[in-house]
Design a protein that fits this description.
Structural class: alpha+beta
CATH superfamily: SCP2 sterol-binding domain
Radius of gyration: 15 Å
Number of strands: 5
Distance between the termini: 14 Å
Strand order of the largest sheet: 3-2-1-4-5
Strand content: 15-25%
Number of helices: 8
CATH class: Alpha Beta
Number of domains: 1
Length: about 160
Amino acid sequence: MADNSTGSVIDELSALDFAAVSPPEFARIVKGLSAKQLGEAMHGELRTRVLGEVFGRMKQQFRPEAAGRLTALIRWKITGDTDVVYETSIAEGACTISAGRSDAEPRTTLIMADAEFLRLVSGNANPVTLFMMRKLKVAGDVGLASGLTRYFNIPKA
């Protein structure tokens, strides 16, 4: 990102083809932005594109060998202008992602703001630290929530 002002950051992010951005490159982009910049960038169509791409890649980042026989529904609630919900279902060595809230009861629900979510999925934040700082709220199985990162290849910036 060339300039540190929020307007130019949003312009640069809006111009990105997120499908062409590798996970390590995405991690570097997130690492280079402040929480304020991340929060300000996550609005409207850009927010929809970013969250869609992150959740769209989650299936490819899944590590079935690490999950073993785990069966769990994880609900992600990302807060911002509006709350966005996605669900990750892990069963029989496979991972499926769906947008929106189902009627199924999740084993754990993770609730966090846009900036914390982007930092978490890009390897720029530790879930335990976020939880201890109350930037990540967990409902349900806290043990599952604390170990989720081992089931996915998390990029490193």
